[in-house]
Amino acid sequence: MLSYRHAFHAGNHADVLKHIVQTFLIEQLKQKDKPFCYLDTHSGSGCYDLTGEWANKKSEYLDGIARLWEEKDAWPELQSYFNCLEQVNAPDAPLNFYPGSPEIARQLLRDQDRLILMELHNNEIEILRQHIGKDPRTALHHRDGFEGLVGLTPPTPRRGFALIDPSYELKEDYQRVIKTITKTMKRWPVGIIALWYPLLGKEADRSHYMKKELEKLGIPMLTTELAVQAQSMTWGMHGSGMIIFNPPWLLKDKLEAILPRLCERLALSPQANWSINLQNSEG
Ligand SMILES: C[S@@+](CC[C@H](N)C(=O)[O-])C[C@H]1O[C@@H](n2cnc3c(N)ncnc32)[C@H](O)[C@@H]1O
Description:
With 283 residues, the chain is α/β, with parallel strands linked by helices. It has 10 helices and 10 strands. α4 crosses α5 (101-108), α7 packs parallel to α8 (172-187) and α8 packs parallel to α9. The chain is globular. The termini are far apart. S-adenosylmethionine binds next to β4 and α7.
């Protein structure tokens, strides 16, 4: 039984990092006219009402996207990401809606590109289906995203990227991430995979173990982390990370150029910090 609902966390610091990486990757793939495929293993419902009861429970977006939105002219590098937010909000209105990863992809992809969206939760897939409507570029799958990614790769067209964004509700999710990426990379060695993971308190954190195992695959991987406060001794999430397998050229430079300022802007305490690290690459 899945209980995680992304509406509680929409637009928080972790979404900001994830969706900036997502938009950078899509924009880089669009540099060529050749079509590409976007796969989303854990899609969520597609768009979130920031005025709704769930988002307002902790109003996490106030320390996330809201901090950037109020000074969006100061972030020309994030124009593409902000355009997606503008599309789901009325002009000159406050930020009432936040687009999820499928909506961001739907907006940025071109007619020749394809979207493959997976979601397991019965209600979330229904909301997603209504939100996406009849988009001829999109295939929606009500299924397990880990199995789905292996089953649906290599996609047609072969060029493209997959976002793996589990809720890590189940401890096994870490093991499943490792197995899924191992199998997918064998079937789709040219694919780009972007994996999101939480940075948790000392008792709960499994990110070190997961990163070590993934590094053993020997695939070029770019790891970036953004912590908005110090790690606690127990459970809470103090930041998040993204690992990009087969990262496109220049992605590291583009992220490196914004991370110091992003970290400063999203910091909740002086211990906030960021990192970026390229492994298994000769470049
Ligand atoms: C972190 S949320 C996704 C957020 C979304 N990617 C975004 O950025 O807007 C994780 C989603 O995965 C779904 N989920 C959990 N386990 C799953 C599985 N095994 N396969 C597919 N979806 C799953 C949850 O219902 C939830 O909607």
